[in-house]
Amino acid sequence: APAVGEAKSWEYIRIDGLGFLPGLCCAHHDRVQSNGILRAHDFDAMLTRHSGERGVGIDHWAALVIDGDTFRTISLPGKGGSVKDTTFCEDGSGVPGIWIKTVEHGQIRSWLAPSTGKLSELLALAESIEKDPRVDVCRAQNPDDTRFHGMEP
Question: To 5 degrees, how large is the angle CA 7–CA 10–CA 147?
Answer without folding.
Answer: 110
